[in-house]
Amino acid sequence: MSAIGTVGAVGAIGVIGCAAVGGGVGAAGRYAVDEWVTGRWRRDFPLGIVVVNVTGSLVLGLLVGVLVSDRAGSAVYALVGTGVLGGYTTFSTASLDAVRLARSGRIGSALGYAVGTLLATVAAAMLGMWIGGA
């Protein structure tokens, strides 16, 4: 869903601003959730990032499900989808965590983490879209 394509040139700056503000909010949320989970998990495994990515995928799927036929939802999608959830979820950190697990000799954990994260996030997005009516 392209947020800019449906708002015209004049509204594009506002949509970009929504995405930027949302990104900051999402990144702060990711940090808070990751720290909260990590503080309680106390194991050498990146469960906080798994929780972030699965919940973010679920909410993004729900948002897309709700907005799929709503072309007026461009600013909402830019703020929440691209911004908040784009800042909240993190494919790059998940990839780095998998590499760190592998480099520490935990090849099985690295593969399980990488494959498990992919499967869980795709399933969560599908569930969110289904709940949202898409």
Characterization of this structure:
Fluoride-specific ion channel. Important for reducing fluoride concentration in the cell, thus reducing its toxicity. By secondary structure, the protein is mainly alpha-helical. The chain has one domain (8-132). It has helices at 8-41, 47-67, 74-88, 91-103, 107-132. Helix 1 (8-41) packs antiparallel against helix 2 (47-67). The protein is globular, with a radius of gyration of 16 Å. It starts with 7 loop residues before the first helix and ends with a helix.
With helices defined by DSSP (H or I, 4 residues minimum), what is the helix count? 5
Which structural class do the helices and strands define? mainly alpha
Question: Tally of extended strands?
Answer: 0
Distance between the termini: 13 Å
Unreliable spans are 1-5
Strand content: under 5%
What is the helix/strand order?
Answer: HHHHH
The count of domains is 1
Average pLDDT for all residues: 87
Percentage of helical residues? over 70%
Overall spatial form? globular
Largest sheet: none
Estimated radius of gyration: 16 Å
